[in-house]
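Lab notebook, bench 4. The sequencing result for the construct came back, and we need a structural model before the next group meeting so we can plan mutations. Quick request posted to the team channel:

Model the 3D structure of this chain.
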Amino acid sequence: YEIRGRIQRKTGLFFHSALIREGRCFGALFFQPETGRLLPIFADAVICAVGGQNKLFGKTTGSELCDGYAAGRLFSQGVLLRNLEFLQYHPTTIETDHKRMLITEAARGEGGRLYYLDGDRRVYFMEEKYGSGGNLMPRDIVSREMYLCPSQVYLDISFLPEKLIRERLDEVRLLCRDYLGLDVSAEPIPVAPSIHFFMGGIRVDREHRTNIDRLYAVGEAASKYHGANRLGGNSLMAAVYSGRTAAQSVHEGCSPFKEDGPRMFSSFIEEEQRGLDALKNSRSLYPAVYVQRNIAEIMIRSLGIVRTGKELAEGIEALDFYLNALKSLRFDPSVSIYENYRIFSMALLAKAVMQSALERRESRGSHFRADFPETKDEFRKCSVAQWKDGEIRIRFEAE
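Done. Here's the predicted structure in token form:
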């Protein structure tokens, strides 16, 4: 279709909001950075493929372009979110200036061993607790055990044949060489867990429809296949299958757009444009970058590998402070307009994640509560977050 000229690409735009009326989506509104104007695109259906919420947490293994704004903005427009508390930590990552780089599980699959130092003694903690296959335990268990270690954890593959490393683990070798200046054939790799994947997201049904008619979500943006944890290949399955399923559903179930979109949404678009224009003419007590960094610190502190109700409640209180301050957000000239106006929706999404974790008073999969360490049958359900009457409401429902 693209070769035939039937697909028109519009690049360089930023999602601003969906165009929703009476429970139906009529298209989306986009911000044009070159002009500072909002561009409406009316459509038979809208499919959201916006990824996870990496930037909410600062440095993760994923792209910061996935900032959570789209999900937060849609949430404020009535879209339901599901299972937000289930965040997968990958146990073995290294830190770089801009993100966490993943050290593949293949390194442990080929025989790599995790340990920490107790004086001069290496403590192979996973093997001591779980036996010879301990290093290959599920990600949530390995991450939790690493969290409990008293000192820096290392992954050692230096004893493996150099030929094997170059043939099967060359990516690990190059990553450590380029980012750490480290030779994995001679030195252990300092590793730490990092947020890697979001099992939760926009609530969809089997056809990948949201609770808003003609609005769909696919890939990591959607909550559908992963439950409380994720197996490695499931994200590939979701990426391939969910996009195809949503496209087929649109093809079969959405009639051509016939409404007078410009007339229906003219007042809404004008109001949103006035808000953006007003934002450019004032200054902020709290710069956007400062607020975003603080939100990331709050999320990492309160939504760690091991959580407690006290930490989650403190995190919600801290987010409430910024949400109140952001109601009168003023322009931070050091960053783009988009980076200014996205902060409130990101903070709203952050609070929904936090409240979902607080309400799930049990431990299940990647969600571990030190104050509720047992898995409970009453919570063998999906959490659903809803923005209604100016507040976040959490309920639990069967799949």
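The longest helix spans residues 337-359.
Will bring this to the meeting.
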